[in-house]
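Structure tokens please, single chain.
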Amino acid sequence: MSPTPPRSPASRTPRRAPRRPVRPAPRKRPRWAMRATVTLSVVVLASAGIGHTLLSSLDSGIARVDPFKDMKNRPRAGHGMNLLMVGTDGRDRITEAERQQYRLGGAPCHCTDTLMIVHISEDRDRASVVSLPRDSYAETPPHTDRTTGEKHHGHPIKINAAYAEGGPQLTVRTVEHMTRVKIDHYLEVDFTSFMKTVDVLGGVKICTDRRLQDSYTGLDLAPGNHTLRGGEALQYVRSRHADASSDLGRMQRQQRFLAGLVDRATSSGILLNPLKFRDVTRAVLGSVRADRGFGTDELLDLGRAMRTFSPSSSEFTTVPIGQMGYAVKGIGSTVKWDPVRSERLFEALRDDKPLATTPRARGRAVRVEVAPQQIRVQVENGTRTPGLAKQVDAALRATGFRTTGQPATARDASVRRTVVSHDPRWDRSARSLAAALPGSELRAVPGLGPTLKVTAGAEAHQVRKVRADDPQRGEAEVVRGDEVGCS
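Here you go.
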């Protein structure tokens, strides 16, 4: 047997993992255990007839596209695997009942509703997902419009329009032109395939700390934990009007959903259960389009990688934004990337490195909806402890909150639990402030106005760091799957 493992893991015979000293590391299996698990999994799949043979038969049923045809002057190949995953608004196989229930009756734009670069590290220990806003300002390479036949030498567009002008090929070429990341594989998912995949997994768990409503998609989720089936999941990832953050908020929800999907697939035994593995694979492959090179070997590679994944193995981010509402004649309002920060992000993908900006590097600040720089706060002392209000005011200001700098004394000097008083209209700001004051109590006071009031109590005065993504300043944050999933 060659010392280099063959491409197909199903053709390997089990061999005893070499003995190596294992350093104790919390929540991480030693590498020999990973190898043993992978080998055992492949043996189980092979013994059940669900290995190369079954996947080869399923492989033949995948609808194929050729997004790499005649492509020249492509970026250099990096390490690991880069998959461009696009979600289209195709709804040809949606039933009339589903159209009505999930608000899918509009005419499709034949464009990409979602674009993500999914990078699987060379050692198969990490997945990095980068969302590309669909309204991103982009410049196409030379091409021929597939609808009009008109030849273009390259022109500005919104990135999601590349699919309408030149299909998967122009989409890949435009993404490579903008990012200089070489795309190895292409996977296209429409509404039907998305719903089927979620249903065969038994649903995906998501959580929200506030009510999410969108009259356009019909989404209506109360605060708390939810297990979403196919149609509801589609409403969740499509909603752009659930809050004021529009498409940027929608991408964050998509990332949370993907984290839940990874958690569901890796924690429920699906990838180690031959029959479940077969059913999931059938659901996915039966209703997607992929490039000709995305076949049995790649599927087994991904399956093997997923078995060592956990939510903490995945990381998510959005391309840093330099300017929102960038107006382009003939196109309208676009989103322009921050050139310096986005290049740093794509360089990490090309070099197969973890994405640079992580919560750990920032001291694991708690993510909140509203940035502390946008929240004005008045601090009062609700105890008889001298200087307490001044102490809390200074700590909040150091964390970024806009305090008045003039702490006062409350009428009640017997407050035990710190209180965050707020006008109901500023409830999102209040939740962000309360996150910085662990153990505090939220109290709605109609008519209080935009300045929030903190009445410091006797129990605890810890102030912790909080931060919100601010894509308009190019500060989109990288988060791990276990930080955006449900606890």
